[in-house]
Amino acid sequence: MSDMDINQVLAQMRVMASAAGTRINEGGVEKVAGQDFGTLMKESIEEVNSAQLQARALSDAFESGDTDVALPDVMVALQKASLSFQAVTQVRNKLLSAYQEIMNMQV
Known about the structure:
With 107 residues, the chain is mainly alpha-helical. The protein has three helices and two strands. It is 73% helix and 7% strand.
């Protein structure tokens, strides 16, 4: 690789890092701003709960005969709630397996 290619790659990495909320310096990657994992996970769980409550409310309204609620809207809301729950469950599973792997490491 030439110096020109390296500089272009570094410039692209800096742009991507700034979009991700990190800063790249000569020594590596340094975190600039962001949330801790616990706060991010809590907010994600609250969003999933909100999506499930909204889907349930739409479902109840449709079942009770509310003419303002269409079946496709109910189905889309239910699918969104289901997918978001599955995503959070997968994150939890990965976190748990990482924790178990760390606990099984020899010191």
